[in-house]
Amino acid sequence: MHEVIAAIATPPGKGGIAVVRLSGQGALELADKVFRAADPAKKIQTAPGYTALFGHFYAAGRKCDQTVALVFRAPRSYTGEDVAELSCHGGSAVVRLLLDACLAAGARMAAPGEFTRRAFENGKLSLTQAEAVMDLVEADNAQAAAAAGAAMAGALWNTVQTMTEKLLTLAGHIAAWTDYPEEDVEELSDAQLLGTLDAIEDRLEKLVREYDRGAAVRRGIPTVLAGAPNVGKSTLLNLLTGYDKAIVTPIAGTTRDVVEDTVSFDGVTLLLADTAGIHDTADPVEKEGVRRSREKLAAAALVLAVFDTSRPLSPEEIALARELSSVHGRSGRAVLFLLNKSDLAPVWSAADLLGDGAEAADNILTLAASDPHHRAALEKAILKLLRLEDFDPDAALLANRRQLACARDALAAVREAKAARAMGLDLDAVGVCVQDALTALYSLTGKNAADAVVDEVFSKFCVGK
Ligand code: GDP
Do the Cβ atoms of 174 and 434 come closer than 8 Å? Predict the structure, then answer.
């Protein structure tokens, strides 16, 4: 066990309660120096694990706020060490006073992520689980929280563990066969070798492939509303957000600015920008709006392109549709063509805008943005287009670039092992590649990861975690 560290574990600002966490050797004795139970017979250091004591905390001998002390005994605590959590009222001054009292009693201020790092070092968490703790703290939508929760529960760890075990068996077999020729080790058949390598390659490919989806869910999907003035972009924004944020007026060109908003459904968050529309204009203010619209369009992962079926298409709209059609699907960008105002008599059809066969395309939706009943169909079309309708946040997902890099390294090594075998190289060469794959997977979950990697992971944590 290490020296006692202390930090405020709750976010800054006012709240019902605030928590100071203490962890390390002597944490319970130290907590007794700042906390006195209402029942003088009770002490934190003699309380059993998983119990709560009510009393007050003291700073410089002065009785301060009411306090509840939670007691955790090693190894049954978050960090695996003795832990005391002191809860007082949630004002920033009072909790600061409590923290200062703990520091004065001999605790050291915790570094960012130090509690979680100790949990990792004490074998309470793998590196991927520790990273999931941080993701859960950062998650601001339900799906991201679910994905982080699954990672914390070990979904990714289990998947990687299964692969590691298979590779270890393989490596052991190869080593025995090549290093002890005099022993009667059964030769590894190609079917056995390739069967294992193929299965691991498939699994790693899937993890790498799914990374982008996971990342999109976590961060939110940059989305742009595009279209000519007055086609119903603001109305569509209101349909998605469910309230009148954008100004809707029948005068063309009213939405001059880029309106930022976020909207969540089925746990997916769209980072929405309503734009001034892309059209030629002499008005300098509108020109600036158009420039910004183009910029947003270039950065978007999803474009909701709105057209008004109740009035003839302009040449600019046809040009926009052509431009967006060519963008759709390129480098992961999706464009949903929304043929709006379906409640009015249409003067053109999907084929007029996007050519023959357009009606059947899954990136075209006819709707009336002014009708709240069309919201569900719109959400469904968006999820389908982003291939998120079957997104399973409970599945194993790579959570960050570090994990992605490890998975890619492992994948490359597995492919090399297969190639070495296909070229007829001897098992020794295959064994080296299998070792490389193992090393990459070990560093993914933090087993044998270099100190630098561990430092890098925990440096991103906030204090108190
Ligand atoms: P924007 O300039 O593209 O943002 O367009 P707005 O959202 O401001 O809408 C322009 C006009 O079209 C407003 O008068 C809206 O009420 C109207 N509008 C928008 N969507 C629909 C629709 O689905 N049906 C009908 N009938 N009118 C709509």
Answer: yes
230 CB under 6 A from ligand 1? Answer: yes
Beta bridge partners of 88: 18
Question: How many Å lie between the centroid of ligand 1 and the Cα of residue 248?
Answer: 7
**The two structure tokens encoding residue 112:** 């960012």
Q: Which of 88-97, 245-254, 286-295, 401-410 has the lowest mean pLDDT?
A: 245-254
Domains in the chain with CATH codes:
5-110 (3.30.1360.120), 132-210+398-449 (1.20.120.430), 223-385 (3.40.50.300)
Q: Report the alpha-carbon distance of residue 277 to residue 353 in Å, rounded.
A: 17
Whether ligand 1 lies within 6 angstroms of the CB of 244 is answered as no
- Rounded to the nearest whole angstrom, what is the distance from the C-alpha of residue 370 to the centroid of ligand 1? 7
* pTM, 2 dp: 0.68
φ, ψ of residue 335 to 5 degrees: the values are: -125, 125
Neighbours of 29 (CB within 10 A): 16
Q: How far is the CA of 283 from the centre of ligand 1 (A)?
A: 22
Could you tell me if the CB of 259 is within 6 A of ligand 1?
no
